[in-house]
């Protein structure tokens, strides 16, 4: 895998295209350079003098809201809350939440393209990976009860040879 296709943290390279050390990983030219008002770490390139925030290249860069609020809005969307409900709960406008969601979708597409290009994965395996990541943080790492979402359906497991995961939705009679 080449350096252009690696996912790396801000602070390990200079993101300024005009810098002689542009995108050189761990060249020793990046130092911590204080914090922003919201507490986000800043970095400075000793070669070109440019500064950037630790959130550079993420959906949190340049946002007036803190990352916790943005993530809360995404969690509320994932729980099928309406945009109006999210506005009432968090005070964030509906249009702002939609803009954040569109930008997050673009980032996820870039990450998926990178993973598909550099690793022997199939699309179904990535879907399973995102499902697995989505369940982290819940009690025991297990999925939430699906009974309300399925309404009269139950999960019956079977093997999917392409990715080794098991899952099939089979309708059952209401109890």
Distance between the termini: 53 Å
Helix-strand sequence: EEEHHHHHEE
Strand order of the largest sheet: 1-2-3
Specify the helix fraction band.
Answer: 25-40%
Question: Mean pLDDT score, rounded?
Answer: 74
Give the total of beta strands.
Answer: 5
Report the major sheet: 3 strands, antiparallel
Broad shape: flat
Total helical segments: 5
Low-pLDDT residue intervals, each spanning 5 or more residues: 141-175
Q: Rounded to an integer, what's the Rg over CA atoms?
A: 21 Å
Structural class: alpha+beta
Beta-strand fraction estimate: 5-15%
Please describe what this structure looks like.
It is a single chain. Among the domains are: 1-57, no CATH class; 123-171, no CATH class. The model is unreliable at 141-175 (pLDDT under 50). It is α+β, with helices and mostly antiparallel strands. The relative contact order is 0.08. The chain has helices at 67-78, 83-90, 94-118, 123-134, 147-150, and strands spanning 30-35, 41-45, 51-53, 153-155, 169-171. The longest helix has 25 residues, at 94-118. Strands 1-2-3 form a 3-stranded antiparallel beta sheet, with no helix packed on it. The chain is built from 5 helices and 5 strands; from the N terminus they run E-E-E-H-H-H-H-H-E-E. The chain is 35% helix and 11% strand.
